[in-house]
Specification:
single chain, 120 residues, mainly beta, seven-stranded antiparallel β-sheet, 1 helix, elongated
Length: 120
């Protein structure tokens, strides 16, 4: 069985407020395998509500900021002659990120994948 992902889009939220979204390149995944997706979220020169910025700043002062990430994708499952197309949604809540103190906007995930649910 193989799984092909196309039209992959990820979105970053803080307290239900959309911060940024980005497109990811298509990819394939083999049977019984796990993958790590890397996404860069940019929010330069865009408006973010003051309450959201204040909340992120307060969390940063405590050392970690929790974000939610949602990934949408068109998926094709193939097993022999059987093929099925579906839309996939992966929702990961409360991903704790330690942001670098140099205001670069870069950070490191504190733990694993967090609390993620998959809907197909």
């Amino acid at each position: 069985m193989s799984i092909s992902y196309d039209s992959v889009q990820s979105a970053l939220y803080y307290n239900s407020a959309l911060i940024s979204s980005t497109l990811l390149p298509p990819f394939q995944q083999g049977k019984h395998s796990q993958m790590v997706l890397e996404a860069s979220f940019l929010k330069a020169d865009s408006y973010v509500q003051k309450g959201v910025v204040d909340g992120i700043n307060k969390d940063m002062a405590r050392g970690t900021v929790s974000f939610d990430v949602i990934v949408y994708a068109d998926v094709k499952f193939e097993a022999g002659y059987n093929k099925e197309n579906r839309q996939l949604l992966v929702s990961c809540q409360g991903l704790a990120i330690t942001l670098l103190s140099n205001n670069s906007g870069f950070g490191t995930m504190v733990a694993g994948a967090g609390d993620c649910m998959v809907y197909a």
